[in-house]
Amino acid sequence: MNLILLGAPGAGKGTQAFELSKILQIPHISTGDIFRDNIKRNTELGAIANSYISKGELVPDEITIGIVRDRLSQADCDKGFILDGFPRSIPQAEALERMLGESGRKIDWIINIVVDDDIIVERLSYRRVCPACGDTYHLKFNPAEGNMCKCGSQLVQRNDDRADVIRHRIEEYHKTTEPLVEFYRHRGKLLNVRSENSISESLQNTLYALGLKGI
Ligand code: ADP
Ligand code: ADP
Fold this sequence. Notes:
This protein is of the alpha/beta class.
């Protein structure tokens, strides 16, 4: 299955993608994770990406599209993939259609994770992430014992999960990314999934929408 997880920052894309990847046995591809990995390794791409991410701006389309093209050409994507955080603009969505078309593939479903802005701010402000395995926690809704990940690493707060940057990211979402909801609705493959409830209920909503109820 080839899936896209769409939604505002903090909607729960990464959390759901992490679980869906285990359930469906297909890779979870997060452009945010790819950028953060490059920032950690001090690569040239990391330096460029960080200059945008730290301000809550989107990394330019040409850079992001190239990264996804490379990733989707790897063999582990042959049996399916979950895109988390890509596409985030109409030009990225059009480029994705072209690159998949070139290899005879298409997107099966776009899962649009829907939550209100006030919930998003609370989710992002209390988010904690594992720099080693990429798992995501929340100080209230999914707390970790002793601020340690299940894999044994110390959890951290992302630099862009600060109040001023969060505000800017939400603005960017409404301006540049939200138009994708209409773009995909027209293609008839959009599944709207509400995610105001707990993490497990939200995941069940997604599985239900995908026709995978009971897994
Ligand atoms: P995104 O990838 O869309 O930015 P995350 O998956 O990182 O979002 O989730 C943002 C924060 O909200 C994390 O701290 C996560 O643990 C928490 N979270 C995710 N889904 C839910 C939910 N349904 N209910 C409560 N908290 C959630
Ligand atoms: P979240 O879903 O919580 O906003 P991500 O990890 O998906 O976080 O993205 C973090 C940051 O990385 C974004 O705010 C943006 O600066 C950059 N980024 C990630 N994906 C893209 C993309 N597809 N296009 C442009 N910038 C991106």
